[in-house]
Sequence to fold (286 residues):
Amino acid sequence: MKKIIISMLAAFGVLFGASSVHADTPVKLQMQNRTDGAAVEIPSDEAPELKNNRVMVPFRVISDQLGATVHWSDQEVVLIKGDTRVSLRLGSDIAVVNRETVRLEAVPYVKNDRMMVPLRFVAEVFGCDVRYENRTVTVTTKPFAIDGVNVSAFLLETAVINGFVVEDVVGNSYIEVLYQLIEAGKGEVVEPPAGTVPEYGLAELGNFYPFAKYDFLDQGGSSIRHYDLYTQRRADDEPPLGYFLLYAAHEDQWYKFDVETPYEIWELKGKAAKSGYGGTVENAVP
Fold:
């Protein structure tokens, strides 16, 4: 009997020792958000950690990866993406998702000036799949589809003096938000502008010239949606136009376009590139 007890204690010692070592091993976080399915490790200035068997991460880490907009006030953070709005409060086990309350299994807290939130809850609210295995958490986004066709890339061509620059975005979550931004930026329907020219250098006062092009491509590289953005050359002492004109090729229709949206698109494109979901495809600037 004594030998059995000793053996059992030894076994428990091994288990507890292994558990202790396991607990000290950092949790690695990665995203399968690229349209090619490749996983990208997510950097964080505050390492993910386990609380109540839930992986906690700085909210900025997951919000940036998902392309969500963040609003922070007092002790509350609000994440917004599309029609989904999530509100979390420090020290509270209650979250609000689109006005419905949800009880959390892990309470948000502050660590080294970073608000830590439950990763699985936030990711799943925004339609992601979460898998935890061997101290690695993998968050997988769904492909974004337009009319049932998966988008493989968003191309942004920006016109500059004497050339253009083409950049791409290949992150599912970013592509989805970019499409929503463009569609939401449409204003009233307008007639095709008179006096369009192919580039700024040829534009006289009153002419419209290309400002940017937006393209959503399928897996074969063909365009699913194409938009041309134009602006007007005006005299230095004239007030700004106040809006852009957008041509939606799939509709063969012109729209007024919100003046802030092109800059929101550039900002989001920059975040995507910083997170490993895009870069420069072509630079035709002399």
Summary: Confidence is low (pLDDT under 50) at residues 1-23. Residues 20-142 form a domain with the Copper Amine Oxidase; Chain A, domain 1 fold (CATH 3.30.457.10).
